[in-house]
Each structure stands twice: as C-alpha cells, then as structure tokens.
Amino acid sequence: MAFDRDIQPTAAIRGNLQFTHAGLVTATYFVNPAGYGLRNASDKYDVKMAHHALIGNLPSGSLLLGIQARLNTIDVLSKMVEGIDLDECEDYALEVVASYERVQAILPQTRIFLLSIPVGSLNTGMSVVSRVWRGNTTTVDATAIARAELDAYEEKAKDILSGIGGEFDPVPVPAALFQWLWEHYLSRGSAGDPVAPTRVGALDDATAAVFRSAALDEGAQSDSGRRLRPSFVPVIKVVQPDFSFRPSYQAMLTPNSFPYAGMTFPGGSEFLSVLEGLSDVTVDWGMRVSTKPAEQVLKSNETNLRRLGEQMDQRDQEVSFAQNTLLSKAQMLGEYNDHFEVNSGESEVLFTTVIAVGGRTREATTDAVNTLKRRYKRFQIDLTAPVGAQVDLWSMLIPGSTPRRAFDDFAHIVPSDMWAGFVPLTTSQIGDDSGPVIGVNLMSGNFEPIHFGIMEAALHDLSASFAVTGELGSGKSYLLKLIAVLVHDMGGQFLAIDRSQVGEWEHFASAIDNAVIIDLADPTVSLDPLRLFDPRTAGERALDSILPLLDLSPTSGAGAAASNLLAPRGIAEHGIRSLLDFFKVVRKLRDEPGAGEEYADLAARLGTIVDRVPVLFDQRLKPLRLDAAATVVRSHNLALPTAEELTTPHLYNRLPLTKRLGTALYELVGVAAREAFLTDNGRFGLLVGDEAHHFTQTQVGSSVTSDFSRDGRKHLAAIGLASHDPATDFQGAAHNLIPNRFVFRQRDETLARNSLEWLGVDLKESPFLLQILREATSPPVGPGRQVPEERRGEMFMRDALNRIGRGKVLGPARLDRAAAIGSTPSSVRALPAAGRVVS
C-alpha cells in the first residue's frame, strides 16, 4: 500500500505552467462555464457551437476538469461587501457578520472548471515519449528556467486560446491551485477536503516537495481481515500518513458504452449534468481528449473499409451471423465517412471520461455509485467501475499525468459536433458575481449563494430593476421587502407603496431608524405637484394628474384653459404657487365679465375635489420630501380601479371619482419618486410597487416605469414591481428592459404559463416546468395546507445575463430584520419587545 511517487507527475510549477518529471510542460486555466440551466434551445445551440470551436482547437492530450469544491465562507462574505463602505453602513456590516454562521451551516459548494493543455516539452535532448517509455524522470528547478523559455510556452498557450475564442474566458490559475488540487484528490469527500484558492496567492512557484504523500489502497485491502484472498471491490482507500484517522473512499467510474443510435441534443446528450445533487459525497469529473482532422479520418476510413471488404470476401461462403455483422459495420462506416465528407470543418475526437466519487465511508461511496448508475440508465449509458484500473483512472484527473493503458482501454471516438453536444463546460449558476446574498441555488445541487448586486449593477451601467410575480402568499412581498431593506442597509433609500390593509410595509418600516410613514387618506404631507416639483416642470406634472382626475381632454375647452393657466407664462402671470391657488384663479376668471364657459366648467369640476383631497389642496401640509432612507406610502384607503377597468376603454371612461382620485395620487407618488431618485445625488434610490397593475396600466405610471427601467442605471436608481399576472401587467418595451425576474408559486395554469413565458422559458421544449411551478414550488401540504418552513421561498429566477434557474429566497441573516419582513402586524402583537429590536 506504499505511495507511488509517479502518480504525482509534477516536478516544478511556475505560475500556471507545470513542468513534469517526464519533461512535459502544461498550462492550466480556470474556465468560465457557459450559462445553461433552463435557457431555450437556440441559446443551448450557441453553447454547443462554442464547445465545437473549443474541441476543434485543443491539442491532443488536453484535460478538461469539473471539480466539486467547498466554497470559502470568507470569499462569499467578501463578495457581499464589494463596493460597500462598512464604516458608513453599520446595518449592512451586522448583516454580513450574521451571514457568516448561516453560510457555514449551509456548506455551499461549487464546481470549478479547469482546462490543462500541453504547450511543449523541456529541452533535455530526449523526447517526452522516450522518457516515458524508459522511465526517466527530470528534476526541474523552476527558478532556473530562462525567461525566454517561459515566454515561448506562454506564447504557445496564447495561440491555442486564441483559436478557442473568448466564450469561456480562460484565466491562468495560481500556482497554489496545483497543490490544492492534489490535496483535494487525496481527501475527496472526506472531512479534510480543503477550500479551493480561486485567486492568485503568495505561492507563485512550487516544487514536488509541496505535494503530500499518501497510500492508494485499491480494493481497500487494509479493511479486510483476509490476507490470502485479496479484495476485488472497485474502491480506492486513500490514506494520508498525517490524517490516517480520516481516510477517503473513492470509486472511479467511466462510460463503458454510449447509445448505439446516438444522443439527442438538447436534453439527451448532456450526460455530465446528472452528477450534481448527491449528498454525503464529492463527485469530480475529468475528460482527456485528443483530436484528428477530417483528412486523416477519411484516409483511415478508406483503410478500414478495405479491411472490411477483405473479411467479407473471406466469409462469403460461411453460414453465420458474421456476414450480417460485417455488413452492419460497413454501413456504419459509410455513414461515418459521409459525415466527414459533408462537414469539412469536422474533426474526430478520442476522449476518455472519468467520474470520481469520494466519501467518508465505503458505504456512502458505494451508494452514490449505484445512484449514478441508475441515473445514467436514462441516457442509455452503461457506467462501469473497472476492477484493477482504479488507480490508473484516478491518476487521469491529475494535470500532466503520464498516459496509462486504461486511458486507451476506456476511450471512445465521436465526431466533434457530437462531442460538442456533451456541453461539459456549463453551469446552472444564477445571480450576480457580487452583492448581498438573497438565497441559494436549488438547480445546481450545490446550494451556491445567489448574489444580487442591485447597487453594483447601477455602478457598472447595468439595469438594476427587477420584477416579481406569483400567487397570493407565495413570497412576492417578502422578496420586495428583503431587497428594500438591503438597499437601505447598504446606504441607499427606498420608497414603497403599501396597499395592504394590515400595513405590512408600515410594520416592516418600524424596524428601520427614522422611517417616514405617509397615509394618503389621512395625510401629514402634501402631494401638490405645484409645490412638490421644480417650477419649470411643475405645471406639466400638475396637468398629468388633474386632467385625468377631472375627466378632461387636453384639447377640450376646460382642458385647454387649464393647460394655458399651468403653462410657465400662466403660472407667472397669475402667481400660481399651489393647486389651491390654481382653483382660486379659475374661480376668479369664471366670475369676470365675458368669461367663457370653459372656466365655469373647470371651476365646477375642481370644486368637487378640493375639499375631498387635502393631500393636494391643503396648504398647511408641508410638501413631501424624499430624503429619508425609508419612506412608506400607505394607499390602502384609496379606491383604485381593477386591471380590467384600466385596460377596457368603456369601463375606464365610467370610473367613479373616488377611483380617479386614487389613481391620480398613486401616480403622483411614482412621479415624486422619479423626480427624487432619477437625479445625480450620489445615493441609490429604489421605488417599490406591489400590486403593480394599479401603477403600470396608467399612462403616467407606465411612463415612470419606463424612465426607471431605461435611465435608472444612469442615476443609481431602480424599480421593483410585483404582480399576479405578468402577461397583462408587465408589457411593453419598458418592461422588456427589466432584466432580473422572479417567479414564485402559481397554481393557476394560465397564470403559471404566462409567468414562465415571461421568464423566458419555452414550454414547448420544457413542458414539465409548468408542473414544477404549479405543484413543486413551495407546495402547501398537510391538513392545514401550509408550506413547510424549509420549502418556503422557492422560485424561478432569470438574472441579468438571461440565465434561468431555480432558487430559494433565504431572507436576512439578522434575526430582527427577518422578524420584521417575515411577519404581519397581526401576527407579531404577542411577540416580546426583544423580537423587534431596532438597531
């Protein structure tokens, strides 16, 4: 059970360049995987074409790796605080500190994708192949390698990467990664598995001395009491001398055969995607590839066809199935040859795939192996764990490893376009690269944190706006409040319109220092546009609100009169400073001799609302100022039209005055937020609108939505909207510019279809997603039809990069913040005061 030093081929490391004992030089890179997940077929074909370009330009002997690794909690927290001054944002600092324990408890993982390519050999007077066959090894001093040699290797690597293209954005790995990768292999699935270094560290160079020794016990012989009869179990027990108390039990799997009729893309060829989601084990994969150009393939096919013809002639008189077998082979060879003749850019790929499963116990590893074998039956792939070749296949995942017989014994040959259909370098990751953590990824199976960098997006000239849809009680308002409080804690400000009768936003805001609560039915501030906005635009803003409220057309007699009075010249001439002044001027003009009927009409219409709407006409109220960090406008006592009344012309024309008043005030709040937030004041502003159809279906509300979605990124602002039906409430170009979209549970089939189509899912390609949204997303269960705590917050998400996946919203890590946004006033009255701490 002694350690075989030849398994670790590294003699020296210089940055991302590896020099092996056999004289081979490789360059290793992080690969940025392509977004895949639930995207539509056309996007998936683009990913396939990127893989086709990759495989067509890789040199023979290249190694692709997908390594499952633990996420470093400190790295997660570092991404949360990027661009945030924690000295100025104490509330957010508390959230980040509270997040530490939660991330530690979740134990999130990720899959790191690596590409290792041969870029040359050491100039020692003997070829790499000769040294391999003769068993010669080379001692390499990394510091003695000339700069010119390093430059030559790096230039060769750049040429290869240039042919691949920039879709996968290769980044050189730090030297420390080679040491981590080795230790990860030795500890795969055990308690001692280290976190990966994803950034360049202090270790720029290394030698073979940094690699630990270990014993690779194939068959786990040391666990068996029988000394005479060796074990033939396809398991490797990896024991490190310093950590003998925590061995790793590993099994190497490889496809024994692929479907005879081929694999359908998309949906039937992505066989590496089934490796995710296994508990208690770590699963890595590696694929060693070599390519052959079409010209060589065609010549080889001619030779093989000639040999088949000779065999058929020899068996011409034989009565057996052999003749039929040879005919079948000849037919297949002909089709294979036609494929390369028609597709001149094709190449032949020889690839060996190894799936490495590691666990703390032999039983856990065996259970995972059997689970994977069952999963692969769906792809009609026969997965095998070959006895006697376990250590050889284990070594294949090491960059620069010496070729072994098992690599060829379990290799397969396919055309490059079929290989591209495997799309191994893909991810189901969703969210942003940095920002606060709002949930975890459910689709990848690794529970990676979902970062939502709403403020970072605006700083990088991207739209930070978002929209949410789902049925009642599915989690829409919870997500809106979560993002609002995060914006506040990171130094921004928000304004939310609260339509709930119980005042859930008011209760939520009570947990925030110096929050301002406004009740439009019992106002303490004025929304008079003539007092609220800049004099240059105040008249236009007042007209936008007054004319629909009075049921006037801008070209009618009374409408034209109002337009003239509220023009800059009319305001200056009559000294109009408020809507009450405007009403007084209209009455004065009505009473003048020879006044037209339009002033009488206008005065009569205004007279019906002056006393009813103090929020517009009471000059004793101070104008609304949106300089508070948190503002909640309660509109629960306003009568608002339904979505049908807003979209049906004859119903809209018959709206009662109370609903017209409600709509006008609702719009004014949005216009005020636009004027306050869409200015370069250096502070991020978020406008939040639940029950969005009240806002988005009106002309003014639609204009405000458009301005936020189009120009918010220029002014550090965003809008967050929620609705039950995106098909009616999220329409038009403005809504198409809202990139971040969330879909919570929808049990109604029509609304569920509308929601998934709005998200970007093609239900013709993926009809099963409809059932998942309706029945398996935060499903109510049990006698009381309650959603279990662990299932709450499940949703579908489309991020700013148009990646679509599934996740779960977690809420704030701070207990006081979580209590504030996760409960309604009626449910917290009995809570002790300590449960509502304001910090």
What features would you highlight for this structure?
33 helices; alpha+beta; disordered C terminus; 839 residues; 14-stranded antiparallel sheet; 11-stranded mixed sheet; elongated; 39% helix; single chain; 19% strand; disordered N terminus
Task: Give a quick summary of the entry.
This protein has 839 residues and is α+β, with helices and mostly antiparallel strands.
Write the layout of secondary structure elements.
Layout: E1 10-14, E2 17-20, E3 24-30, E4 34-35, H1 41-57, E5 62-70, H2 73-80, H3 90-106, E6 109-121, H4 128-134, H5 147-164, E7 171-172, H6 176-186, E8 205-207, E9 215-218, E10 236-239, E11 248-257, E12 281-293, H7 294-314, H8 322-342, E13 347-359, H9 362-377, E14 382-384, H10 390-396, H11 405-409, E15 411-415, H12 416-420, E16 426-427, E17 432-441, E18 449-451, H13 454-459, E19 466-469, H14 476-489, E20 493-498, H15 504-509, E21 516-519, E22 525-526, H16 529-532, H17 535-549, H18 557-565, H19 568-574, H20 579-591, H21 597-607, H22 614-617, E23 622-623, E24 630-634, H23 643-647, H24 649-653, H25 657-677, E25 685-689, H26 693-696, H27 699-711, E26 717-723, H28 726-729, H29 733-736, E27 740-743, H30 749-759, H31 768-775, E28 794-798, E29 804-809, H32 815-821, H33 825-828
Parallel strand pairs: 4-16, 19-26, 19-27, 20-24, 20-25, 21-24, 22-23, 25-26
Antiparallel strand pairs: 1-2, 1-8, 2-3, 3-6, 3-7, 5-6, 5-12, 9-10, 10-11, 11-13, 11-14, 12-13, 13-15, 17-18, 17-29, 27-28, 28-29
Helix pairs in contact: 1-5, 2-3, 7-8, 17-25, 18-21, 20-21, 25-27, 30-31
